[in-house]
């Protein structure tokens, strides 16, 4: 294969620039001999396909002849990419929730946050191993476990998940830009700046993004070290609210689940970055690279956020000056540094872009995975549409960000954990000895019908509802448990119990 066929960038997300003649003369082959002609049928499509460096690849499986060898260099690059993507400011905000809003002590928040983070990243590492094994993106692999049609629900949920995260990142970035400019730049304009840069990188710069991620972690880490040096002496490790033992345990469980949710939210994207790894790569190696890169970065940012939360919680002066908005939280850390602190805050915005871009990119693929009409629409159209949607939502929700964090993040954990349970059980109990025909990724007749998975998923949601404790609803089990948010755990338990017998019945009567 020569360089004109496909351009691979260190084993992860890739793209190629397609010339007009290639589009008009070259069909692509899907599974089982079905050909799709790539020739654009409209002037708009011809113009779009002719743009240089725009990602025009779709959701097709990457065949083994297009894979690349894995070296120490590519392994290090993937570790650094995960480290860069997850060394994000939104994790600092989540860290501050434990000490600032929930009233936990630093010790309680740290133990719950780190344990939740490690457990979540272990699940992300497991999902990442399916990339080299299959050559398919994560939610295409999911078709083999959920079935073709029920899997569309997961694709739609992941679109909402990424829209939500991109919205949160954009608001935080907009607030930082506004605070750093002394209010001369409005939060609305700051939101637009973050969204446009993220869109441009997802549309035109995945090669640039890959190179950027190799080095972005260094200035981000340096800025975080500066933040620790500036704000660290003001951390209050003794502050906490006096809760009853029952109420304190409820807060601990809720915060543990919240931190698990932000980590495991990467699971529906994890395999996407490894589709150009050869299938013979040891699964433990892929798992280890993913877990080490993401867990370390999330731990650093969560702990820093917890410390900053204690600063605002113990200082009425800082709280009055900067408020308890996420942007104000970060600017509190740089308060003694003057103009240099504002420069560091701008570097933090670049970290938000690094965290936004993968989600903006993946949403285009998730739309195509819905099949039918959606699969025929070029990916850049969906990337642009997604950017417009989350930018508008960010503008509307810019003044209620902490409330959105508390309400939105647990819902992500609910569906991702139930989806993950089905994948693990299907692989262990029903597929491990049978194996997989990865070329059948788009052949509905050879994929599971998904009746068992769909019913188990709905049963899991029933469990999540009766176990959840949110501002808008508190389930029966949550009330009995003293206000603990148990939606994630009850939903996972209901799914785990329901799926195996339902799947056995499905295989007995339907055979696939």
UniProtKB/TrEMBL annotation:
GO biological processes: nucleobase transport
Membrane topology listed for this record: Multi-pass membrane protein
Recorded GO MF terms: transmembrane transporter activity
Listed GO CC annotations: fungal-type vacuole membrane; plasma membrane
Protein name from the UniProt record: Purine-cytosine permease
Gene3D superfamilies with a match to the protein in the record: Hydantoin permease (1.10.4160.10)
The species this protein was found in: Penicillium malachiteum
Keyword Hydrolase: no
Primary localization class, coarse: membrane
Keywords linked to the UniProt accession: Membrane, Phosphoprotein, Transmembrane, Transmembrane helix, Transport
Family: Belongs to the purine-cytosine permease (2.A.39) family.
Subcellular location: Membrane
